[in-house]
Amino acid sequence: MNTTPVLTARGLTRTYGSSFTAVDGIDFDIYEGEIFGLLGTNGAGKTSTLEILEGLAKASAGTVKVFGLDPIKDRKKVRPRQGLMMQEGGFPTDLTARETLSMWAGTLSNPLPVGTVLDWVSLDHRANVRVSSLSGGEVRRLDLACAIIGQPQLLFLDEPTTGLDPESRRQAWELIASIQSSGTTIVLTTHYLEEAEYLCDRLAIMHEGKIVTSGTSDSVVAGHPSTIKFDELAIPVEFESRATSHRGTTTITTHQLQKDLAKLLAWAEETGTELSGLKASAASLESVFLDIAEGK
Ligand SMILES: Nc1ncnc2c1ncn2[C@@H]1O[C@H](COP(=O)(O)OP(=O)(O)OP(=O)(O)O)[C@@H](O)[C@H]1O
């Protein structure tokens, strides 16, 4: 992996008003050519962080360097190298998709052809439709088109596939992956863990303004326990200390899923016990995320 940092954040803090800390002293590096994901529950501080990285908001404390520069003070140098897709685009509604993208391209120094980008985001057949008549998912794809048409070296995508149907989401993933393969570094936020697993080389999970865990998806999941669930019944003594019971379901947590499952099945066989509702699940990004969300 290329470990040349394109972006570094140290002690990044953002407070609202006099007392609310939305981003609480976080540190991370984003390397050239990678896709870095910022994940977290609603209100974890992802957008508040992204806005500082993008140079749209000032940090209350800490530093950010983008291409070694200050994204606010050196805005003139940094901005042309960045593409931004925010949660809300806010286009004039009476322009068509093509007019909107052409107008935006007119402000950039090195835009790709408008028709090519409309084709990439599958809006070529909707090019002459006014923004007011586009569906929510189509507006989202127009947002993405505006973010990539300037051939940015660093692309920020804030929930790029929210509102897209599953097929359009897959297409957006392919497009984002192909933009990365052309050398662009990408920072994205998402609520879709499958999206993070598919796209992100590394990710950080935020909770209440802090980064709780970070690394590759595999390294974040490693060390997290797997679970065995079944309908509530008396269980072997050796599992009692790792078992919890909730709404009629017993859950055993384990770091040795195969071994413990084999033991449990052998016990059930010997004692003639029916393990109804049996479900064994390896640790996943989702289980890590849910534990963090629950403050575990
Ligand atoms: N302008 C603001 N003034 C006061 N509080 C704010 C402001 N913007 C955000 N917040 C608060 O800061 C916290 C972090 O918000 P932020 O939008 O960064 O979270 P997020 O992780 O992006 O959430 P989501 O997944 O819902 O988009 C939330 O508690 C939010 O209510």
Features:
alpha/beta; Rossmann fold; 2 domains; 13 strands; 27% strand; elongated; binds adenosine-5'-triphosphate; ABC_transporter-like_ATP-bd
Secondary-structure element order, N to C: EEEHEHEHHHEHEHEEHEEEHEH
Describe the biggest sheet?
6 strands, mixed
Give the overall pLDDT as a whole number: 92
Shape: elongated
Question: What compounds are bound to the protein?
Answer: adenosine-5'-triphosphate
The CATH homologous superfamily of the largest domain is termed: P-loop containing nucleotide triphosphate hydrolases
CATH A-level architecture of the largest domain: 3-Layer(aba) Sandwich
Beta content comes to 25-35%
Q: Could you explain the architecture of this structure?
A:
With 296 residues, the protein is α/β, with parallel strands linked by helices. The chain folds into two domains: 5-220, P-loop containing nucleotide triphosphate hydrolases (Rossmann fold, 3-Layer(aba) Sandwich), CATH 3.40.50.300; 224-294, no CATH class. 31% of the residues lie in helices and 27% in strands. The strands form three sheets. Strands 5-6-7-3-8-9 form a six-stranded mixed β-sheet, sandwiched between helices. Strand 6 (154-158), helix 6 (166-181) and strand 7 (185-189) form a beta-alpha-beta unit. It is elongated. The mean pLDDT is 92. The structure holds adenosine-5'-triphosphate (ATP). Adenosine-5'-triphosphate (ATP) binds at residues 16, 20, 22, 40, 42-48.
